[in-house]
Amino acid sequence: MGSMDVHESAPQLVNWDLAAATAARLAPPGPQLEPWEAAEAVASLRRLADEAVPHVHRITGLAAAKDLRDSQVLIVDRGSWAKANTQGFEVMLGPVLTQLVEKRASEITPSAARVGGALTGAQLGAVLAFLSSKVLGQYEPYAALASDSTIPEGGRLLLVAPNIVQIERELNVEPDDFRLWVCLHEQTHRVQFAAAPWLRAHILEQVGQLSESLIGNMDSLMERAAAAAKSLRERPWVSSGEPLPSRGAILDLLQDPAEKAAISHLTAIMSLLEGHATVVMDAIDGEVVPTVKTIRQRYNARNQNRGVLETFIRRLLGLEAKMRQYTDGAKFVNAVVESVGMEGFNRIWERPENLPTEEEIHAPERWVARMG
Q1: Contact partners, residue 162, CB within 8 Å, separation at least 6
Q2: What is the distance between the alpha carbons of residues 99 and 97, in angstroms, rounded to a whole number?
Q3: Would you tell me the crossing angle of helices 175-195 and 35-60 to the nearest 10 degrees?
Q4: CA dihedral of 284, 285, 288, 289, whole degrees rounded to 10
Q5: Of 345, 343, 346, 339, the residue nearest 365 (C-alpha)
Q6: pTM of the entire structure?
Q7: Which helix (H) or strand (E) holds 138?
Q8: What is the pLDDT of residues 24-69, one digit of tens each?
Q9: Domains of the chain, residue spans
């Protein structure tokens, strides 16, 4: 897939530099570390990221795990993670912003674009600041597509050192064991994209089609956004008995059939990727990670104890839906592997047509039947 010059496409609608700077400024401070502790954590994560790859290869059977030289591993702080994500957003949204400028050219003056770009950049930065303290690691395939990128073609894996250290301290678990456990999950994502070289372009295409639909229905989207905002104000989000929205409040805006179909397909892909990584994580036993049972118990218990404000924000951003993707996807992967073995499951990485639908994620036997 060729690169795109996102800097020339529509930078005036989102001030990406301001987004990165805002995120870095607003990100909560990480755990207090002496210089030698920080250096040790970085070296340890780099070593354990490498150690994780043979285990991913053994569990998944994916030959792509043998050679990941076209991507890179970076140990980053919260600000660097936020900046990396602004670059990814810029690649994904650049063409969409160009379309919006062209569609509303008579309504968007340069001065209005500057003001709007600053406002949108600051808002995006605030969201990334919140997320920057929650993410342990992330495979980032899109920034490599920017025209001025020096990132390898295969993208990059980001491990957020301060967050990993903070969680391992909160859980009071063995640092090296916890770090390897995290690396197993994140390296699986790196291997997935290496095993399916078409996957990055396919997801980008789906996001593009969804965005084009949203741009085409911009007027009705504004009405839906207003209605959703009213619903958010009135809904008792933190009441324990209320069911969660199907895919997070923001995505509940999407009512158009084409938009819902695109979201359904992307949801299925994300469930597959997260679930597959969770299965790899759960396949590790005490021989590889001696304290893995303790880590699982304490980590899962921690996710049940969040404050009111964080609960609201996570639901607003659809992060609770992401947590369900881990469990839904893992059930799908386990069921398919039990039915046709890992080799049969790995047909999923051969071509886009082999990806499961959202319906198949919840009915794995239908995917198995469709694959023959």
Answers
A1: 30, 31, 33, 77, 78
A2: 5
A3: 50
A4: 90
A5: 339
A6: 0.80
A7: strand 137-140
A8: 888 888 898 899 999 999 999 999 999 999 999 999 999 988 878 7
A9: 6-370
